[in-house]
Amino acid sequence: GSAAVSPAEIAPGTPEAPREVKIEVGDSMKFSVTRFEAKAGETLRLLLVNTGSAPKEAMGHNLVLLKAGVDAAAYANAALKAKATDYVPAERAKEVIMHTKMLGGKARDAVVFTVPAEPGEYVYVCTFPAHLQLGMKGVMVVQ
User: Fold this and answer.
1) Global confidence as pTM
2) Closest among 19, 24, 113 to 61, alpha carbons compared
3) Nearest-CA neighbor of 64 among 34, 33, 95, 91?
4) Which of 9, 53, 54, 140 has the fewest CB atoms within 10 Å, i.e. is most exposed?
5) Among residues of the chain, what percentage have pLDDT more than 90?
6) Which of 98, 115, 105, 143 is nearest to 41 (CA)?
7) Which segments of 1-143 are extended strands (E)?
């Protein structure tokens, strides 16, 4: 089958406004949403909002959604060496489904992406140094 979706199959306006998942981050070192469900192949808009006040350099937050089976701790360790690219290591791009920008206080970023077709659990992490170890992770459950 073709991957294209005919207009009749989707509700009016969905290409411009896919379902949004809003996740807040801040000085508490936690994602406000640590688990959300998605349908295989759906288009999602992920909105990350940093409610904290610290500048990006002191305490930035991002959200990196990893492909199935990627070792989150190993990815975060590689990210430590990628300060120049906001702790998103270019050499591991193949392990990432999508990622937001690194956000300082009061900043936000939205990313529209296609959920993988393979059902399962996909881990997302903040790659700012030490934040994963402090518990900044969550899981997207694809059904």
Assistant:
1) 0.88
2) 24
3) 95
4) 9
5) 87
6) 115
7) 19-25, 35-38, 43-50, 64-66, 96-99, 108-114, 120-125, 137-142
